[in-house]
Amino acid sequence: MSTTIKKPTYTWRVVDIVVAAVVAVACGVIFWLWDQAYVGVTAATAAFAPLSGLYSGGWLLAGVLGGLIVRKPGAALFCEILAAVVEALLGSQFGVTVLLSGLVQGAGAELVFAAFRYRRWNLGVALLAGAVSGLALGVSECLQFFVEWEFGWQVAYTVFAVISGVVIAGLLSWLAVKALAKTGALSAFAAGRAADV
Description:
The chain has helices at residues 14-44, 61-70, 75-89, 97-115, 123-144, 151-183. The chain has 197 residues and is an all-alpha fold. The chain has one domain (14-192). Helix 2 (61-70) packs parallel to helix 6 (151-183). The chain is globular, with a radius of gyration of 17 Å. The relative contact order is 0.16.
């Protein structure tokens, strides 16, 4: 008895676009709310500013979550960029720089999903996507905003951003997809039917 492994389809359906947009808009609102608390975070970490990297994972949710749900090339990038656009339109204190951040951070998650050829969607892949997004965030922010820091601080900030990406973007996104799948809300997607969820 022969078994055929069904190859994933990479063509976007209307439902993929709509759900990716909904995820992105919701995450954009979360990003904006995350912005509001950042002033308190910087005050709390004033003695050792790189610790603020532990807070950064909230800005990485859209790419990992969108990628895990839609499971198509470009989903992580699309969700992260659109979420950044929403964040900017709501009046982010970081201005239009969030658009570049969305591009860089979304590319981090997209790179991981592409490395697995958009075929593996387990917890390990989700955590790795969060980690690489955190790495992209850490490096880009050190180059944009923290150039004056000594190298050791930049490395520490990036390490903290990676940890935050793993826990907040990777783990929480995977748990959210798993919970949504159990409700049947993702039944139109492979994420709602897969055993690895």
